[in-house]
Amino acid sequence: RIKGKSDGPFNAMCFLEDGTLTGHTEILHTDSELTFWETDVSEPLHSIKNGSAYDLSLHPDGRQLLVTTYVSGGSSGNGARKRHREQYTPNSTNLKIFSLFSKPAANKAGC
User: Fold this and answer.
1) What is the DSSP string of the chain?
2) Among candidates 19, 57, 62, 53, which has minimal Cα distance to 34?
3) Distance between CA atoms of residues 98 and 108, nearest Å
4) pLDDT single digits (tens) 4-58
5) pLDDT attached to residue 89
6) From CA 111, how far away is CA 69, in angstroms rounded?
7) Which of 27, 21, 23 has the alpha carbon at shortest distance from 11?
8) pTM of the entire structure?
9) How many CB atoms lie within 10 A of CB 72?
10) How far is CA 93 from CA 11, 23, 24, 62, in A?
11) What torsion, rounded to 10 degrees, do the Cα atoms 47, 49, 50, 51 define?
């Protein structure tokens, strides 16, 4: 289960080099989340709030994840965009690169 809400599917999922599964949800006109799981645990390992995304691509170095994110250009569904086209900017896509690093181990010596 994901931590946030979603009104759409996971549009993209992939395995990272350490076996962690990652995927991205979709929510129209609001923040969604990039989520990470250990494959033997149902609860997410980690989630990052992000706009709705449609694809993931893992860099060959295994340390960078490219996410294509939807950016809403304004209202939708009421027909106003057709009547007042000059008042609305088009929807667009952002490319976001996430650097993947393990969480640092806790320092037991207290230093």
Assistant:
1) --SS--SS---EEEE-TTS-EEEE---TTSEEEEEEE-TT-SS-SEEEEEE-EEEEEE-TTSSEEEEEEEE--S--SSSHHHHTGGG-PPPEEEEEEEEP-PPPPP-TT--
2) 53
3) 29
4) 655 567 778 899 988 999 988 877 656 788 889 899 988 888 888 888 888 889 9
5) 64
6) 40
7) 23
8) 0.70
9) 15
10) 15, 18, 15, 23
11) 120
CA angle 10, 28, 87 (to 5 degrees): 145
Which tokens go with 88?
């609305």
CA atoms within 13 A on the CB side of 106: 2
Residue 111 to residue 27: CA distance in whole angstroms: 42
Select from 37, 76, 30, 73 the least CA-distant residue to 53.
30
Cα angle 70, 44, 65 (rounded to 5 degrees) comes to: 45
Q: What are the residues facing 67 on neighbouring strands?
A: 56, 96
